[in-house]
């Protein structure tokens, strides 16, 4: 196994999913630390300064091989996935994404390390089986907890990495963030942006910020993952020999209760709070009837995106905030190995909101 790079080896990163939230923040971090960075996505569009863009369809092996023919990365960071209608289809498609990429790079013999970003569905189960009644995992969630006896595309992606590592001799790391919070150029589908859109609409209409989720999430302990803290851990694991061939949880390092953070979000937007009232009030239902309101707000405030459906992902936010248990993670494994990254969660949200205003995505 290639457990240590030779001195003065040039770091050449291939960030797969480079226009997404995880990938774009990672690419920026790598550029800052002197890496040569290639960004792979389905389109050549990439607003990250210093990143060389590659356009390829991960489900087209021939196109992928052609796109990568002149690139020999030392490190691969896989940060993307595709959502389909069933978990069986998720498994088929998302395992192919990883397999096709690693097959395309295999003959080059350049890859020293592969990092795969998954998430807490590793412990909670896939979307359609999300923490079903009577099948709750023990929290805090720990890396050594066994896989669930459920179909899960995260497991399939991991297995593709393990198989390719055994074949090609590279090391690997798996990274399991909780809900990602951060800014992404060209990809704004995330809880933080969705809540910013919702709070902006509430302020415009003069109504309170209604809690959409469960009592367990409202009152229980939780944590989230800033996209920049994830980038820090990805870089750390890729360059720290003792962190190789390990799976890591990754969160900001603090904990909170949503009833506290909900008030902080409302304070930022200068609106009132309507907390948990005994039943769930899904955000998807509340935002689905606000498309015309948002269109008018975009015109009034000169916003850059008038299509609510392109910048808000209420379905995913409802899944996170509707969980019937509190969800928090343990980071002992990476802490013991020397990872010390920390980020204040309320500052993660405020920094994102400031950036969204700066980019004229919210008023």
Automatic annotation (TrEMBL):
Which organism is this entry from? Flavobacterium noncentrifugens
Q: Which residues form the PRISE-like Rossmann-fold domain?
A: 74-363
A single Pfam family it belongs to is PRISE
InterPro entries listed in its UniProt record: NAD(P)-bd_dom_sf, PRISE-like_Rossmann-fold
Under what name is this protein listed? Answer: Nucleoside-diphosphate-sugar epimerase
């Amino acid at each position: 196994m290639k457990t240590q790079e030779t001195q003065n080896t040039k770091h050449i990163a291939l960030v797969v999913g480079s226009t997404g939230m995880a990938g774009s923040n990672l690419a920026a971090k790598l550029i800052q630390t002197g890496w040569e960075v290639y960004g792979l996505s389905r389109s050549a569009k990439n607003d990250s300064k210093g990143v060389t863009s590659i356009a390829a369809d991960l489900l087209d092996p021939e196109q992928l091989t052609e796109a990568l023919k002149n690139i020999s990365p030392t490190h691969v960071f896989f940060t993307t996935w595709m959502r389909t209608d069933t978990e069986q289809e998720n498994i088929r498609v998302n395992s192919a994404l990883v397999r096709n990429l690693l097959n395309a790079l295999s003959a080059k013999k350049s890859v020293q390390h592969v990092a795969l970003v998954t998430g807490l569905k590793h412990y909670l189960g896939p979307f359609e089986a999300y923490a079903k009644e009577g099948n709750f995992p023990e929290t805090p969630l720990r890396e050594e907890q066994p896989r669930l006896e459920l179909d899960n595309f995260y497991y399939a992606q991991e297995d593709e990495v393990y198989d390719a590592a055994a074949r090609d001799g590279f090391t690997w790391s798996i990274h399991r963030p909780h809900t990602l919070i951060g800014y992404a150029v060209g990809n704004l589908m995330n809880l933080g942006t969705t809540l910013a859109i919702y709070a902006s609409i509430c302020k415009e209409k003069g109504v309170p910020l209604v809690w959409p989720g469960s009592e367990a999430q409202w009152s229980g302990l939780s944590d989230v993952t800033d996209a920049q803290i994830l980038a820090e851990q990805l870089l750390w694991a890729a360059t720290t020999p003792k962190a190789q061939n390990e799976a890591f949880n990754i969160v900001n390092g603090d904990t909170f209760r949503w009833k506290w953070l909900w008030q902080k979000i409302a304070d930022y937007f200068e609106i009132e709070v309507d907390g948990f009232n005994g039943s769930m009030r899904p955000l998807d239902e509340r935002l689905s009837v606000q498309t015309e309101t948002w269109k008018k707000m975009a015109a009034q405030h000169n916003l850059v995106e008038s299509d609510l459906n392109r910048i808000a992902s209420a379905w995913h936010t409802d899944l996170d905030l509707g969980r019937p248990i509190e969800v928090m993670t343990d980071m002992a494994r990476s802490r013991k190995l020397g990872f010390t990254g920390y980020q204040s969660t309320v500052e993660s949200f405020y920094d994102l909101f400031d950036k969204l205003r700066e980019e004229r995505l919210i008023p």
